[in-house]
Amino acid sequence: MLDSATLKQVHVLDHPLVAHKLTLLREKGLSTSSFREIVAELGVILAYEMTRSLRTTEIEIETPVAVTRGRVIDGKKLVLIPVLRAGLGLVDGMLRILPSARIGHVGLYRDPKTLGAVEYYNKLPADLQERDVIVADPMLATGNSAIAAIGLVKRSTPRSIALACLVSAPEGLRKFVAAHPDVPVFTAAVDSGLNDHGYIVPGLGDAGDRLFGTK
Predict the structure, then answer these.
(1) Of these four, 78, 122, 134, 166, which has the most CB atoms within 10 Å of its CB?
(2) 163-198 pLDDT, tens per residue?
């Protein structure tokens, strides 16, 4: 179970479509193409929920019928930062409704012995100080990769930052919130916990392998 402090920072997408798609995603026999498509669809829903508080400004436009006023997103374009490689699947979906977003990349892998995150790539837009950032890391298990990724992004002092994931474990969420109490987490599910190898149970397996058909 999650404590009250963690629950305040974690937003679980409570929606029938999310539950339905996540159940399909968990199925062991799902094809690579179907897995990829459902991850992208969930990326769309996550992006929609995570952008509810974006700042807007009013402008004047002309419709085919009349002049009117409407609201548009204010400031510079968002930045989407997938944690390689599995984060790419979520970003593909997010781009369907955020097609003008800038893209950064953070490359991390989990050391099989220590379960710690090891950085191997880091390429971010130069002007994050004026932009809102969404970091995409589908599996929040031990929390080490997400903590490291957010730490890297924070060095560039973005205007705001949030984490998107598909499936999370209570252990990882507690650890993440302790490390980054200022970063909200949006997840499709909080599973029961981790096994002896640090994998989420019931989880959905290795998201990267299932996305790219490498296992």
Answers:
(1) 166
(2) 999 999 999 999 999 999 999 999 999 999 999 888
